[in-house]
């Protein structure tokens, strides 16, 4: 073996021993310099999670968040859709896109964008847009729609100081956890890894160790923001929205400054919007059964028929008590009931 070959071999060996984030060529130098100094814990899918501003992020999400904080310039007309993972994000994206674009894209149109593109492709996760790149949003159609899992404390200054609107959708922590556990195990299986037992994952969740967790701190942050600035932040509960979709489509339209007129109501526009964005309709579209997202995730991984209270099929009484105790301790001081 020549010296050059030996050198290349040593280089490859050193690269293989390096921390996972050092092997990610898309990560910024800022992120690579920061990560060694942050608390870290085991992630649900495989990568470590790192604690930044009190919340846990994987290296990809954190890299995008840092760039988002530094470079994003919010417009007063922007709309930011925020959730914790697996709290109804896909539905919220479809619903808000269809509401604000109902004139140029009538919900009954055979050429509606939601029929051929996954909601996550239509309304991008802003942190992932900033991961490894510097996106240009200047030519986006108005109003600009973005989604985020970032906690309120981490929102860019321009978002906090502008008149942009934020819709926050939260979900019962029991059902959020079960849905997230299913989702991450599906990703683990696709990557050739074993599924993580539910008891082990629940312990991490209750300790606050989940993507963009602690879950309860995330929810409380936006709950308080909605109380302080109700014209800027709309706080919704997934269970209520699912039970009364017609009512909440109208409320969201009002909040976003494009109220549904009496004429539109008479024409059945609300019912058409609800039908277009229903789970049955979206999940049966070919693009959502066979397509893949920006990072290779199967689109069908974002669609799981989880009914309210579905967690009862997976939890023991001890697990329910454990999770409910944390929820009560975290939410009751703020008058939050889930």
UniProtKB/TrEMBL annotation:
<dbReference type="InterPro" id="IPR027417">
    <property type="entry name" value="P-loop_NTPase"/>
</dbReference>
<protein>
    <recommendedName>
        <fullName>Sulfotransferase</fullName>
        <ecNumber>2.8.2.-</ecNumber>
    </recommendedName>
</protein>
<dbReference type="Pfam" id="PF00685">
    <property type="entry name" value="Sulfotransfer_1"/>
</dbReference>
<dbReference type="InterPro" id="IPR000863">
    <property type="entry name" value="Sulfotransferase_dom"/>
</dbReference>
<feature type="domain" description="Sulfotransferase">
    <location>
        <begin position="76"/>
        <end position="332"/>
    </location>
</feature>
<feature type="compositionally biased region" description="Basic and acidic residues">
    <location>
        <begin position="12"/>
        <end position="22"/>
    </location>
</feature>
<comment type="similarity">
    <text>Belongs to the sulfotransferase 1 family.</text>
</comment>
<dbReference type="GO" id="GO:0008146">
    <property type="term" value="F:sulfotransferase activity"/>
</dbReference>
<keyword id="KW-0808">Transferase</keyword>
<feature type="region of interest" description="Disordered">
    <location>
        <begin position="1"/>
        <end position="22"/>
    </location>
</feature>
């Amino acid at each position: 073996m020549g010296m050059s070959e030996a050198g290349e071999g040593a280089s490859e060996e050193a690269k293989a021993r390096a921390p996972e984030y050092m092997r990610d060529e898309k990560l910024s130098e800022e992120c690579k310099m920061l990560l060694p100094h942050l608390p870290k814990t085991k992630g649900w899918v495989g990568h470590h999670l790192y604690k930044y501003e009190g919340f846990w992020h994987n290296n990809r999400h954190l890299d995008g968040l840092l760039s988002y904080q530094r470079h994003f310039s919010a417009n007063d007309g922007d709309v930011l859709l925020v959730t914790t993972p697996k709290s109804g994000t896909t539905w919220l994206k479809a619903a808000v896109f269809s509401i604000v674009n109902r004139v140029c894209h009538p919900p009954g149109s055979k050429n509606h964008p939601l029929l051929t593109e996954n909601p996550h492709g239509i309304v991008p996760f802003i942190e992932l847009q900033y991961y490894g790149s510097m996106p240009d949003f200047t030519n986006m159609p108005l109003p600009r729609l973005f989604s985020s899992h970032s906690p309120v404390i981490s929102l860019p200054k321009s978002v906090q100081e502008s008149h942009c609107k934020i819709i926050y959708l939260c979900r019962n922590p029991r059902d959020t956890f079960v849905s997230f556990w299913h989702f991450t195990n599906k990703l683990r299986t696709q990557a050739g890894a074993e599924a993580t037992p539910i008891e082990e994952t629940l312990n991490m969740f209750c300790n606050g160790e989940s993507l963009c967790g602690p879950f309860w701190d995330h929810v409380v942050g936006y709950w308080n923001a909605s109380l302080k600035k109700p014209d800027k932040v709309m706080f919704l509960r997934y269970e209520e929205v699912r039970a009364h979709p017609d009512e909440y489509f109208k409320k969201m339209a009002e909040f976003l400054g494009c109220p549904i007129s009496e004429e539109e109501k008479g024409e059945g526009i609300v019912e058409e919007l609800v039908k277009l964005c229903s789970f049955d309709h979206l999940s049966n579209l070919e693009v959502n059964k066979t397509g893949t997202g920006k990072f290779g995730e199967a689109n069908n991984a974002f669609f799981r028929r989880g009914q309210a209270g579905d967690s009862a099929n997976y939890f023991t009484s001890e697990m329910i008590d454990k999770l409910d105790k944390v929820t009560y301790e975290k939410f009751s001081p703020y008058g939050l009931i889930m």
